[in-house]
């Protein structure tokens, strides 16, 4: 696996579990607001043996391992790493953009995932301008998760290009979800070229969006 980063301890990335986070390099999307953009194109890599040894040492001390990115489903040996984590006693979580339902299906069928956080980035017609990629596979991945019995959430970073009308359309476009998180967007250097005159939403606005969408998606929440 091309590993671009390792967070050795996190209380935020895996619900109710102390976890380590492994960041896979590379992604098939190019979202302007990506907070991990430095690992998308040929970043320095960590030795796999070093990460493997870390997981062995911390087994029994950390409850879970999160495979994030980048987009981890692009890694050919992701299943091997998930299996290794499970054999060491860890619960496993996958962060994914949902673009590779074939990989997701294989991982779910193999029982390698305990939790999945999948990005639901925008109305499907807005994926191309926001992510520089079509939403191919995203709806199929949502359906796979709904049918799997595995705990999961969808999450949307509410960039200024998304209005409440568009969020409402997103809520209506999918079946009832067990969890949908609206995440606060925080402007980064160089983002202004994509934002123009648009201003990032304030935390109270994200919370108001979540309240407004409760009638469509009961389990929507604001992370702001």
Outline:
With 224 residues, the protein is an alpha/beta fold. It has helices spanning 48-58, 78-87, 101-109, 127-131, 138-148, 164-172, 192-195, 203-213, and strands at 3-10, 19-24, 64-68, 91-96, 115-119, 151-158, 180-184, 220-223.
Describe this structure in words.
The protein is 31% helix and 21% strand. The chain is an alpha/beta fold. The chain has a domain at 3-157: TIM Barrel, CATH 3.20.20. The protein has an eight-stranded mixed beta sheet. The two termini are 33 Å apart. The mean pLDDT is 97.
Layout: helices, strands, pairs:
Layout lengths: L2 E8 L8 E6 L23 H11 L5 E5 L9 H10 L3 E6 L4 H9 L5 E5 L7 H5 L6 H11 L2 E8 L5 H9 L7 E5 L7 H4 L7 H11 L6 E4 L1
Parallel strand pairs: 2-3, 3-4, 4-5, 5-6, 6-7, 7-8
Antiparallel strand pairs: 1-2
How would you describe this structure in keywords?
alpha/beta; TIM Barrel; 21% strand; 224 residues; 8 strands; 8-stranded mixed beta sheet
| Total count of strands | 8
Largest sheet: 8 strands, mixed
**Separation of termini?**
33 Å
Widest sheet, order of strands = 1-2-3-4-5-6-7-8
Mean pLDDT: 97
